[in-house]
Amino acid sequence: MDVDLIVPMKRPHEGKSRLRGALPDERHAGLVLALAFDTLTAVTSAAGVRRVLVVAADPAALAELRELGVELIAEPGPGGLNSALRHGESVLRRDDPAGVVGALQADLPALRAEDLTAALAEAAGRRAFTADRQGTGTTLLLSAAGRALDPRFGVGSAAAHARSGAFPLTVPVLSLRSDVDTSDDLGHACALGVGKHTAAMLGEPCLPR
Predict the structure, then answer these.
(1) Residue 209 domain-assigned (yes or no)
(2) Residue ranges of the chain whose pLDDT lies below 50
């Protein structure tokens, strides 16, 4: 069953605050945008992904992402990540109330399309999630077909999603678990091999995959 994915994004200059300092401050927004470009390049190449909806605090600041074939809409207000995801879900459900909706983080620059495809295949239309490599956060949350996404992102989201009835995906997809919140995370992603946009921002020794 094909999946429609929601990718929430803050304004690039405000996003990834814990990553600030990895590059000079004037390049921070460019790095945030590069992470999203590489994430979405993989997402739009993955089998089983039908639509990708970016819910943005400032759609105009992310207009370049449209060249990847994604849709951009504005957040309904300053309600936070889970509110943005619920808004995106409502938009997608208007067209397909019985579909599978997912939430994916925009900071997965090492993501391989085949890893996302494998995760969607394991979920097989059931409510499921992928924890980050530390096991505490969530990089991907999927609804069951026609059922609420029920996002519970925040501190300890992996445990919160498990308590809410989502099952943890077990397929070995390290690139899908490797989100970037800190400089250490960025170094880990570089070791896996990041996409060309992130590699161009960072230069050597962070080479593209």
Answers:
(1) no
(2) none
